[in-house]
Amino acid sequence: MTVSVTQEGDIACVTLDNPPVNALGQAQRAGLADAVAQTNAMLGLRAVVLLCAGRSFVAGADIREFGKPPMEPHLPDVLAQIEGARVPWIAAIHGTALGGGLELALACRYRVALRSAKLGLPEVTLGLIPGAGGTVRLPRVIAAADALTMVAGGKPVGAMQAQDMGLVDALADADLLDAALRFGATLADRPDPGPVLARPVLNPDPAAFDRLAAKLAARARGRNSPKEAIAALRRALTLPASDALAAERAAFLRLRDDPQSKALAHVFFAERGAGRLDRLKGISAPAPDRVGVVGGGTMGAGIAAACLLAGRYVTLLEQTPEAAEAAAARVTGILQDSLSRGVIDTGQHAACLNAFTATSNAADLSGVQLAIEAVFEDFDVKRAVLAQLETVTAPDCVLATNTSYLDVTALAATMADPSRLVGLHFFSPAHVMKLLEIVVPDAVSDNALASGAALAKALGKITVFAGVCDGFIANRIMSAYRADCEYMLEEGALPWQIDAAMVDFGFPMGIYQMQDLAGLDIAWAMRKRRAAEGKRPANYVRIPDILCEAGRFGRKAGRGWYDYSSGEPLPDPEVERVILDESTRKGIVRQAFAAEAIMARILSVMQAEGDAILREGIAARAEDIDVVMINAFGFPRWTGGPMYLRDQPPRIASD
Ligand code: 3H9
Fold first, then answer.
1. Which terminus of the chain has a lower count of CB atoms within 10 Å, N or C?
2. Any idea where the 3-hydroxyacyl-CoA dehydrogenase C-terminal domain is (predicted)?
3. Cα(22) to centroid of ligand 1, in Å?
């Protein structure tokens, strides 16, 4: 039974129960339609409260049904029945009311929400627009501009903001059902606002709407759905409600078959599947509460801040009191910034500060349950830190290395107990970037792996398990396509042409601007180390070394692949001359590269490296590689990722 009806005095309670997030599939739609018929037939009712069992209100239509033929009853019809019910329905919202879930709540006459609840229409993030009246009902409940932001931006709002907007009629602190029943008892004293669809749209200021629409459309870049969402909102403001509803439904059904929405659904499920590892089935570990971080540079401070923001106690170890103080300043700077940007409130900020200790005394790590080293990327340095950690922490404390490239199995082999070591590869800035690669060395215990995974979940990271190899998944693929881009430079392309091709494809920035932002000197130092170890390939490209020798370390130096003297990245004739000279020196006849040819090459290198990674068992599934490339390097999400894209018909990268 997914929908049940009970009675509390003169109020009926309709409870939807479809774990884990009450997604609306055919059975739930049918159950709701039955509940409308049943409650319509009940005598002496004042109202109906609609609530959900489990951790959340409705998270939307069941995305798993999208690839299948539509099944009756359709959601718009069920919502019309709720809106036209004999007595008003009150949605009682906890957790999240998203997509079809918020549309369901909008078909109710009133909405009561727990303070912690979130409400939103995130369909654009799935390449869709609302398909059950969301674009038509929302601007009849909140101001048109707010509705546009929610529909075309896709970001949910908190219940308190929703109340300010007029989307929520009452807030509850704890007992939601009780609050909804009490709200129901007051209905006789309130003027009836009538069914939402019968109300006029709110504040349809066309000029303000157009300005906001232009801003949101610019942000959409290659994605089709935000532009469709804007068009749907525009129709809702100008057409009769019934016409706008019909047009919204037609657009929703069209977009549901659009390659972008199929790709985005692939990513949605891939991100949720990536954090699963067969060997951990049935094994769970509590997320460590007390975390140690060794090294307080940019990465270590970011990791410490990420842990604090996720409610952990953090002890950060540096080599000297001065270094500990500098690291503490970095961490508190991040926390202050999080406070200023509204990521945390003053209470949470104070709690983070209380939970944080920076020290130069290794013994202070004795009580931590998991310690992450984020020290200089050098095998011997990391080996020494791990040896120290083994002596100062308890034997059951999990140890983690944040190395980007080093052999984690070899590092573990230097330890007294190699089963304690797991790789936790964060991306910088660690408190912002969603991706975390969990690197699985040969000797790691299930418990250490499960603890690392539990910490990642507590930090809200998208996790992907990776085997041990040079660069794991993300950096290995990046190294491969970066190398090929350098060959393209020698063969005839220029950095700004390669960057433009990548941006046109949908990347937020090209590989050369990205390198300039990160700084060219770290990779240069690594190349020199590898050369000293005799690891220089025969067809080595010298161009980046020549730039570094000239002090062109990127944005921070004002010069790198680009010239930043004006503040903006500008193509630089000096860089072009270095590239042309190198082509001449190697006897390469330069040829022009079209943007499509550049992208085709980059994609084929990514896919070939991805295939090698799968063959070697470094990644378990092709979709794990998609998840990594999207979240580490901004590979355009709406294409589904490089591995997914390869199996699709061409031309889905842009509209
Ligand atoms: C829509 O509503 C269209 C309508 O306008 C029109 C209709 C006509 N369907 O994320 P989690 C699964 S479009 C099916 O790990 P969390 C998810 O796969 C939809 N399954 O938990 C996972 O399964 P598993 C608009 C869904 O607590 C499990 O639930 N709605 C759906 O971190 C737990 O998910 C959205 O875009 C679904 N709609 O986050 C919201 N949602 O355990 C999409 C979740 O087998 N959902 N699952 O891996 C979310 O954003 C997050 O899941 C949510 C919970 C915030 C709700």
1. N
2. 471-564
3. 9
Q: List, in sequence order, the alpha helices (H) in 154-240.
A: 159-165, 176-185, 206-220, 225-238
In which band, very low, low, confident or very high, does the pLDDT at 652 lie, cut at 50, 70 and 90?
very low
Q: Whose CA is nearest to atom 30 of ligand 1?
A: 60
For the stretch 331-360, pLDDT in tens is 999 999 999 999 999 999 999 999 999 999
CA of residue 120 to ligand 1 center, whole Å: 12
The rounded Å distance from CA 645 to ligand 1 centre is 23
At the topology level, CATH places domain 278-466 in Rossmann fold (3.40.50)
Output the ligand 1 site: residues, CB below 6 A: 20-21, 23, 59-64, 75, 96, 98-100, 103, 122-123, 126, 128, 130-132, 134, 272
Active site residue ranges: 103, 123
The burial class, CB within 10 Å (0-12 / 13-18 / 19+), for 101 is: buried
Contact 123, 78 (CB under 8 A): no
Can you give the pTM of this predicted structure?
0.92
For 3-257, the fitting CATH number among 3.40.50.300, 1.25.40.10, 3.40.50.1000, 3.90.226.10 is 3.90.226.10
Tell whether the model's pLDDT for residue 653 goes beyond 80: no
Q: What is the Å distance from ligand 1's center to 400 Cα?
A: 31
Q: pLDDT value at position 538?
A: 84
Strand order in the sheet with 170-172: 3-8, 11-16, 47-52, 89-93, 110-114, 170-172
Mean pLDDT over residues 83-99, rounded? 97
Ligand 1 pocket test: pick from 16, 28, 63 the residue with the most ligand atoms within 8 Å of its Cβ: 63
Task: Label residue 608 by pLDDT band (50, 70, 90).
Answer: very high
